[in-house]
Amino acid sequence: MESFNVHILGCGSALPTLKHNASSQIVEIRGKLFMIDCGEGTQIALRRSRIAFARLSTVFLSHLHGDHCLGMIGMISTFGLLGRTSPLRIYAPAEFEPMLRSQLEMFCHGLEFEVDFHAVDTTKQAVIYEDKSLTVESIPLEHRVPCCGFLFREKPALPHIRREMIDFYKIPVSQINNIKNGVDWTTDDGEIIPNSRLVKPAEPPRSYAYCSDTRYMPTLHEIVKNVNLLYHESTYANDQLHNAEKYFHTTAEQAAMVARDAQVGKLLLGHYSARYEDEQVLLEESRKIFSETYLSDEKMAVEVK
Questions:
Q1: Please, are residues 176 and 166 in contact by the beta-carbon 8 Å criterion?
Q2: In terms of Cα–Cα distance, which of 148, 92, 104 is closest to 123?
Q3: CA-to-CA distance for 242 and 240, rounded, in angstroms?
Q4: Among 5, 6, 3, 9, CA closest to 49
Q5: Is 116 among the catalytic positions?
Q6: pLDDT (tens digit, 0 to 9) for every residue of the chain, 305 residues total?
Q7: Cα–Cα distance measured from residue 102 to residue 280, given in angstroms and rounded to the nearest whole number
Q8: Are 31 and 121 in contact (CB under 8 A)?
Q9: Are the CB atoms for 234 and 251 separated by under 8 Å?
């Protein structure tokens, strides 16, 4: 099975602390690297995680609060210093483009690569990125500014060849792709060998949903139904429910309710308020509702499975 991992670069909220960086993640899927959010400190976190800058092709920004996007221009500048030539795609709310172009003009003269901006409508669930192996959908969220999450889905893979059957029926290599695509095989004697005898099913496609920042959305589970891994903000514990409602954030208990109702495989908590020196209280609160809850932390790499 090919790689599908989520690398946590930052899981704190707006107020900087010595314990957590501002929000940022790398989604590594089938050898490709995608970044979600780019708060301050992201470059240093990338260095510490030993993730190669040059392999990063695409950045998705959920919204225009500083703890999710202030590291962007610095990272682009570093790419320039490193001699990058391949394009960098950025998917973000439309309001980010004029700011980005202004910053590029001021700080990033002479870049040898293209910064390719794509505006995202945060009010709609839609496929915003697609290649031969995956899609990325926007997830409308409810925050104080336009905001969306992101849903990464693998495309179904072709079935695996049963090598012993291919050898037994002396099927030429030139026909392997046809077999994978569902074609039966006819022997020299006219016997039809059903495709199901020649292949075995591929592994089920995997999926990952990133939901930060948002207030509790009772219907969110419908969009992230059955994902293998859900990252959901859990800025507060229940004792701070009034702040969660005031600032359009979510408690750990509410994040667990989304995970439970969506029947996800695993829940990752993150975007912790700086008030918590120990996030164990968030973990305990969430596990009362959804047992497969885990705390995200910097330098953590979580396999999607």
A1: yes
A2: 148
A3: 5
A4: 9
A5: no
A6: 789 999 999 999 998 899 999 999 999 999 999 999 999 999 999 999 999 888 999 999 999 999 999 999 999 999 999 999 999 999 999 999 999 999 999 999 899 999 999 999 999 999 999 999 999 999 999 999 999 999 999 999 889 999 998 988 889 989 999 999 999 999 888 899 999 999 999 899 999 999 999 999 999 999 999 999 999 999 999 999 999 999 999 999 999 999 999 999 999 999 999 999 999 999 999 999 999 999 999 999 999 99
A7: 42
A8: no
A9: yes
Please tell me the pTM assigned to this model: 0.93
Given the residues 67, 184, 239, 261, the one annotated as active site: 67
The full DSSP string for 216-243 is --TTHHHHSTT-SEEEEE--B-GGGHHH
Lookup: tokens for 251:
């408690």
Contact 208, 162 (CB under 8 A): no
Question: What's phi and psi for 123, nearest 5 deg?
Answer: -90, -5
Residue holding tokens 């899927």? 29
Closest by Cα among 293, 239, 241 to 270: 293
Amino acid letter, 171: I
Q: Quote the tokens at residue 129.
A: 């990125």
